[in-house]
Amino acid sequence: MDTRRLLFLRELARLGSMREVADELAVTTSTVSQQIAALGADLGAALIEPDGRRVRLTPAGRRVADHAVTILAAVDAARLDLDPDAEPAGTLRVAGFATAVRRSLLPLFGDLTDRHPKVRLLIHEHEPAEALALLADDDVDLALVYDYNLAPVTFDRSVDAVPMWQAGWGLGVPSADGPGVDDAVAIFEEFRSRDWIVNSRNTADEIVVRTISSMAGFEPNIVHHADSLDLVVDLIRAGLGVGLLPLAQPPVPDVTVVRLTGPEVILRAFAVSRRGQSVWPPLALVRDVLRAPGTGG
Questions:
Q1: Which pLDDT score, from 0 to 100, does residue 271 have?
Q2: Distance separating alpha carbons of residues 62 and 72, to the nearest angstrom
Q3: Which of 7, 190, 230, 257 is the most exposed place for a label (fewest CB within 10 A)?
Q4: Phi, psi (deg, nearest 5) at residue 277
Protein backbone atom coordinates (compact mmCIF):
# COMPACT_ATOMS: atom_id res chain seq x y z
CA MET A 1 0.00 0.00 0.00
CA ASP A 2 1.24 3.49 -0.88
CA THR A 3 1.39 5.33 2.45
CA ARG A 4 1.12 8.66 0.64
CA ARG A 5 -2.45 7.73 -0.19
CA LEU A 6 -3.09 7.20 3.51
CA LEU A 7 -1.74 10.70 4.09
CA PHE A 8 -4.37 12.18 1.76
CA LEU A 9 -7.13 10.32 3.59
CA ARG A 10 -5.83 11.30 7.04
CA GLU A 11 -5.66 14.94 6.04
CA LEU A 12 -9.18 14.81 4.62
CA ALA A 13 -10.38 13.42 7.96
CA ARG A 14 -8.52 16.22 9.78
CA LEU A 15 -9.37 19.18 7.57
CA GLY A 16 -12.77 18.23 6.17
CA SER A 17 -12.44 19.31 2.53
CA MET A 18 -10.37 18.33 -0.48
CA ARG A 19 -9.50 21.96 -1.16
CA GLU A 20 -7.98 22.37 2.30
CA VAL A 21 -6.05 19.10 1.87
CA ALA A 22 -4.77 20.31 -1.49
CA ASP A 23 -3.64 23.60 0.05
CA GLU A 24 -1.99 21.82 2.99
CA LEU A 25 -0.08 19.35 0.78
CA ALA A 26 0.59 21.78 -2.09
CA VAL A 27 -1.20 19.68 -4.73
CA THR A 28 -4.36 20.03 -6.78
CA THR A 29 -7.79 18.93 -5.60
CA SER A 30 -7.82 16.53 -8.54
CA THR A 31 -4.71 14.84 -7.15
CA VAL A 32 -6.35 14.50 -3.74
CA SER A 33 -9.44 12.92 -5.30
CA GLN A 34 -7.41 10.53 -7.44
CA GLN A 35 -5.19 9.37 -4.60
CA ILE A 36 -8.11 8.67 -2.27
CA ALA A 37 -9.96 6.85 -5.07
CA ALA A 38 -6.84 4.74 -5.71
CA LEU A 39 -6.62 3.91 -1.99
CA GLY A 40 -10.25 2.83 -2.03
CA ALA A 41 -9.54 0.61 -5.02
CA ASP A 42 -6.56 -0.93 -3.19
CA LEU A 43 -8.78 -1.74 -0.22
CA GLY A 44 -11.90 -2.68 -2.15
CA ALA A 45 -14.07 -0.20 -0.25
CA ALA A 46 -15.67 3.19 -0.87
CA LEU A 47 -13.87 5.66 1.41
CA ILE A 48 -15.76 8.86 0.59
CA GLU A 49 -19.26 9.83 -0.47
CA PRO A 50 -20.93 13.02 -1.73
CA ASP A 51 -22.20 15.50 0.87
CA GLY A 52 -23.78 18.36 -1.06
CA ARG A 53 -20.97 20.05 -2.95
CA ARG A 54 -18.40 18.48 -0.66
CA VAL A 55 -17.48 14.95 0.31
CA ARG A 56 -17.38 13.12 3.62
CA LEU A 57 -15.81 9.91 4.82
CA THR A 58 -17.88 6.75 4.76
CA PRO A 59 -17.83 4.55 7.87
CA ALA A 60 -15.15 2.47 6.13
CA GLY A 61 -13.24 5.65 5.31
CA ARG A 62 -13.35 6.74 8.95
CA ARG A 63 -11.96 3.39 10.11
CA VAL A 64 -9.15 3.50 7.55
CA ALA A 65 -8.39 7.12 8.54
CA ASP A 66 -8.04 6.00 12.17
CA HIS A 67 -5.58 3.29 11.09
CA ALA A 68 -3.77 5.87 8.94
CA VAL A 69 -2.98 7.94 12.05
CA THR A 70 -1.07 5.03 13.62
CA ILE A 71 0.54 3.85 10.38
CA LEU A 72 1.77 7.29 9.35
CA ALA A 73 3.00 8.00 12.88
CA ALA A 74 5.10 4.85 12.69
CA VAL A 75 6.42 5.87 9.27
CA ASP A 76 7.27 9.34 10.63
CA ALA A 77 9.06 7.75 13.59
CA ALA A 78 11.15 5.64 11.24
CA ARG A 79 11.94 8.66 9.10
CA LEU A 80 12.96 10.69 12.14
CA ASP A 81 15.28 7.91 13.24
CA LEU A 82 17.06 8.34 9.92
CA ASP A 83 16.77 12.14 9.78
CA PRO A 84 16.69 13.63 13.28
CA ASP A 85 17.13 17.11 11.80
CA ALA A 86 13.92 16.95 9.76
CA GLU A 87 12.11 20.29 9.80
CA PRO A 88 8.63 20.06 11.41
CA ALA A 89 5.91 21.16 9.00
CA GLY A 90 2.13 21.11 9.02
CA THR A 91 -1.00 22.54 10.61
CA LEU A 92 -1.43 21.71 14.30
CA ARG A 93 -5.01 22.09 15.57
CA VAL A 94 -5.18 22.85 19.30
CA ALA A 95 -8.27 22.97 21.52
CA GLY A 96 -7.73 24.31 25.01
CA PHE A 97 -9.12 26.26 27.93
CA ALA A 98 -8.49 29.99 27.84
CA THR A 99 -5.90 30.15 30.65
CA ALA A 100 -3.75 27.47 29.01
CA VAL A 101 -3.94 29.20 25.64
CA ARG A 102 -2.82 32.49 27.22
CA ARG A 103 -0.22 31.00 29.56
CA SER A 104 1.20 28.17 27.47
CA LEU A 105 0.55 28.73 23.76
CA LEU A 106 0.69 32.47 23.16
CA PRO A 107 4.15 32.95 24.74
CA LEU A 108 5.70 30.37 22.40
CA PHE A 109 3.91 31.56 19.26
CA GLY A 110 6.47 34.16 18.21
CA ASP A 111 9.46 31.88 18.75
CA LEU A 112 7.68 29.01 17.00
CA THR A 113 6.93 31.21 13.99
CA ASP A 114 10.55 32.39 13.78
CA ARG A 115 12.23 29.00 14.28
CA HIS A 116 9.70 26.74 12.57
CA PRO A 117 7.86 28.79 9.94
CA LYS A 118 6.38 25.65 8.34
CA VAL A 119 4.38 24.86 11.50
CA ARG A 120 0.99 26.57 11.69
CA LEU A 121 -1.16 26.67 14.85
CA LEU A 122 -4.96 26.74 14.76
CA ILE A 123 -6.39 27.54 18.20
CA HIS A 124 -9.89 26.70 19.43
CA GLU A 125 -11.05 27.76 22.93
CA HIS A 126 -12.86 24.90 24.67
CA GLU A 127 -13.40 23.52 28.15
CA PRO A 128 -11.86 20.06 28.87
CA ALA A 129 -14.83 17.82 28.03
CA GLU A 130 -15.35 19.68 24.77
CA ALA A 131 -11.65 19.55 23.85
CA LEU A 132 -11.37 15.81 24.60
CA ALA A 133 -14.46 15.09 22.50
CA LEU A 134 -12.89 16.96 19.58
CA LEU A 135 -9.68 15.01 20.07
CA ALA A 136 -11.55 11.68 20.11
CA ASP A 137 -13.23 12.62 16.81
CA ASP A 138 -9.85 13.64 15.33
CA ASP A 139 -11.11 17.20 14.88
CA VAL A 140 -8.04 18.52 16.74
CA ASP A 141 -4.53 17.18 17.25
CA LEU A 142 -3.83 18.48 20.77
CA ALA A 143 -6.12 19.20 23.73
CA LEU A 144 -5.07 21.44 26.61
CA VAL A 145 -7.23 20.39 29.57
CA TYR A 146 -7.31 20.60 33.34
CA ASP A 147 -8.59 18.90 36.43
CA TYR A 148 -8.36 19.59 40.18
CA ASN A 149 -6.66 17.51 42.83
CA LEU A 150 -10.11 17.13 44.41
CA ALA A 151 -11.77 16.28 41.07
CA PRO A 152 -9.18 14.18 39.20
CA VAL A 153 -9.75 13.15 35.60
CA THR A 154 -9.11 9.60 34.35
CA PHE A 155 -7.75 9.71 30.81
CA ASP A 156 -8.82 7.12 28.26
CA ARG A 157 -6.20 4.58 27.15
CA SER A 158 -6.47 5.94 23.62
CA VAL A 159 -4.66 9.16 24.59
CA ASP A 160 -1.33 10.30 25.99
CA ALA A 161 -1.45 13.03 28.66
CA VAL A 162 1.59 15.16 29.50
CA PRO A 163 1.52 17.32 32.68
CA MET A 164 2.17 21.01 31.99
CA TRP A 165 1.79 23.08 35.18
CA GLN A 166 -0.19 23.46 38.39
CA ALA A 167 -1.84 26.47 40.01
CA GLY A 168 -3.35 27.06 43.43
CA TRP A 169 -6.96 28.17 43.66
CA GLY A 170 -8.86 29.80 46.50
CA LEU A 171 -12.30 31.10 47.32
CA GLY A 172 -13.27 34.47 45.90
CA VAL A 173 -15.32 36.51 48.40
CA PRO A 174 -16.26 40.16 48.92
CA SER A 175 -13.27 41.87 50.58
CA ALA A 176 -15.34 43.10 53.51
CA ASP A 177 -16.23 39.50 54.33
CA GLY A 178 -12.73 38.01 54.04
CA PRO A 179 -12.17 35.45 56.81
CA GLY A 180 -9.13 35.50 59.05
CA VAL A 181 -8.34 31.79 58.59
CA ASP A 182 -7.26 29.66 55.64
CA ASP A 183 -8.68 26.29 56.70
CA ALA A 184 -10.88 25.29 53.74
CA VAL A 185 -13.57 23.57 55.78
CA ALA A 186 -13.84 26.48 58.24
CA ILE A 187 -13.98 29.01 55.40
CA PHE A 188 -16.70 27.11 53.55
CA GLU A 189 -18.64 26.80 56.83
CA GLU A 190 -18.44 30.58 57.19
CA PHE A 191 -20.01 31.08 53.77
CA ARG A 192 -22.52 28.22 53.89
CA SER A 193 -25.51 30.58 53.74
CA ARG A 194 -24.26 32.40 50.62
CA ASP A 195 -25.14 31.67 47.03
CA TRP A 196 -22.39 29.94 45.07
CA ILE A 197 -20.99 30.42 41.56
CA VAL A 198 -19.63 27.55 39.44
CA ASN A 199 -18.45 27.00 35.86
CA SER A 200 -21.15 26.79 33.20
CA ARG A 201 -19.20 24.51 30.81
CA ASN A 202 -17.28 22.19 33.11
CA THR A 203 -18.25 20.32 36.28
CA ALA A 204 -14.82 20.05 37.92
CA ASP A 205 -15.03 23.16 40.09
CA GLU A 206 -18.59 22.28 41.13
CA ILE A 207 -17.26 18.90 42.30
CA VAL A 208 -14.60 20.73 44.34
CA VAL A 209 -17.19 23.07 45.87
CA ARG A 210 -19.50 20.18 46.74
CA THR A 211 -16.63 18.10 48.14
CA ILE A 212 -15.40 20.75 50.58
CA SER A 213 -18.97 21.74 51.44
CA SER A 214 -19.75 18.14 52.34
CA MET A 215 -16.70 18.13 54.62
CA ALA A 216 -18.18 21.20 56.29
CA GLY A 217 -21.54 19.44 56.61
CA PHE A 218 -23.75 21.41 54.22
CA GLU A 219 -25.14 21.42 50.67
CA PRO A 220 -24.03 24.54 48.75
CA ASN A 221 -26.76 26.68 47.21
CA ILE A 222 -25.41 26.81 43.64
CA VAL A 223 -27.23 29.60 41.87
CA HIS A 224 -24.98 31.13 39.21
CA HIS A 225 -23.05 29.47 36.38
CA ALA A 226 -20.33 31.39 34.53
CA ASP A 227 -17.44 30.29 32.31
CA SER A 228 -15.61 33.64 32.30
CA LEU A 229 -13.41 34.30 35.34
CA ASP A 230 -13.96 38.03 34.80
CA LEU A 231 -17.70 37.46 35.09
CA VAL A 232 -17.22 35.39 38.26
CA VAL A 233 -15.27 38.32 39.75
CA ASP A 234 -18.02 40.76 38.76
CA LEU A 235 -20.70 38.55 40.30
CA ILE A 236 -18.73 38.42 43.57
CA ARG A 237 -18.22 42.21 43.53
CA ALA A 238 -21.97 42.65 43.05
CA GLY A 239 -22.60 40.55 46.15
CA LEU A 240 -24.32 37.79 44.21
CA GLY A 241 -22.28 34.92 45.60
CA VAL A 242 -18.86 33.37 46.18
CA GLY A 243 -16.84 31.04 43.96
CA LEU A 244 -13.46 29.53 43.19
CA LEU A 245 -10.79 31.76 41.65
CA PRO A 246 -7.04 31.32 40.98
CA LEU A 247 -4.74 32.62 43.70
CA ALA A 248 -2.83 34.42 40.93
CA GLN A 249 -5.97 36.35 39.95
CA PRO A 250 -4.97 40.01 39.41
CA PRO A 251 -6.10 42.16 42.35
CA VAL A 252 -9.61 43.53 41.96
CA PRO A 253 -11.21 46.15 44.22
CA ASP A 254 -13.69 44.69 46.70
CA VAL A 255 -12.80 41.04 45.95
CA THR A 256 -10.43 38.86 47.98
CA VAL A 257 -9.20 35.41 46.95
CA VAL A 258 -8.77 33.43 50.17
CA ARG A 259 -6.12 30.71 50.23
CA LEU A 260 -7.49 27.27 51.12
CA THR A 261 -5.64 24.60 53.10
CA GLY A 262 -6.61 21.25 54.53
CA PRO A 263 -7.41 20.53 51.72
CA GLU A 264 -5.73 22.77 49.17
CA VAL A 265 -7.35 23.26 45.78
CA ILE A 266 -4.85 22.71 42.94
CA LEU A 267 -5.67 23.06 39.25
CA ARG A 268 -3.53 20.72 37.09
CA ALA A 269 -3.05 21.37 33.38
CA PHE A 270 -2.31 18.66 30.79
CA ALA A 271 -1.43 18.47 27.09
CA VAL A 272 -3.32 15.50 25.61
CA SER A 273 -2.91 13.85 22.21
CA ARG A 274 -4.14 10.67 20.59
CA ARG A 275 -1.93 7.68 21.28
CA GLY A 276 0.34 6.98 18.31
CA GLN A 277 0.31 10.59 17.06
CA SER A 278 2.86 12.12 19.41
CA VAL A 279 5.81 11.46 17.09
CA TRP A 280 4.30 13.63 14.36
CA PRO A 281 6.95 16.40 14.21
CA PRO A 282 4.72 19.49 14.69
CA LEU A 283 2.90 17.82 17.59
CA ALA A 284 6.10 16.49 19.16
CA LEU A 285 7.65 19.96 18.92
CA VAL A 286 4.81 21.72 20.72
CA ARG A 287 4.32 18.96 23.31
CA ASP A 288 8.00 19.10 24.22
CA VAL A 289 7.75 22.86 24.83
CA LEU A 290 4.59 22.47 26.91
CA ARG A 291 5.81 19.55 29.03
CA ALA A 292 6.47 20.43 32.66
CA PRO A 293 10.15 20.09 33.73
CA GLY A 294 10.92 16.67 35.18
CA THR A 295 7.88 14.88 33.74
CA GLY A 296 9.87 12.90 31.14
CA GLY A 297 8.05 10.79 28.58
A1: 96
A2: 15
A3: 230
A4: -100, -10
